Amino acid sequence: MSKAASTKRIKPITEKMTKSALQAHLADVTGLAKRDVASVLTALDDTIKASIHKKGVGEFTLPGVVKFKTERVPAKPKRKGINPFTKEETMFAAKPATTKIKVRAMKSLKDAAL
Predict the structure, then answer these.
(1) 73-99 burial, b if ≥16 CB within 10 A, otherwise e?
(2) DSSP 3-state assignment of 104?
(3) 0.85 exceeded by the pTM?
(4) pLDDT, tens digit, for every residue of 75-105?
(5) Best CA proximity match to 94, nearest among 82, 79, 81
(6) Closest CA to 102 of 57, 70, 60
């Protein structure tokens, strides 16, 4: 984002947007056809999914907006412990390995919310 674009006054959007409303808004703002905006959003969606895929790089940054990052959580074995509610000893079930997706807002997006 250039410095001139970042100093431009942004008009707040007061209603929640649906997918088609977002496509119409972006088509209006950019002057592109609605079909072209839809194909760009689809390509962006596919790129994000490919980046965070199991065999992908594991992270994706949409510059100035948001960062997606995968975090691998290892498996946890079955264990003995104390139930915090009943104070009785119990066996806690094993949990399989999982992958979490962390989403972090970038600074310019945080600044826009102020």
Answers:
(1) eeeeeeeeeeeeeeeeeeeeeeeeeee
(2) strand
(3) no
(4) 999 999 999 999 999 999 999 999 999 999 9
(5) 79
(6) 70
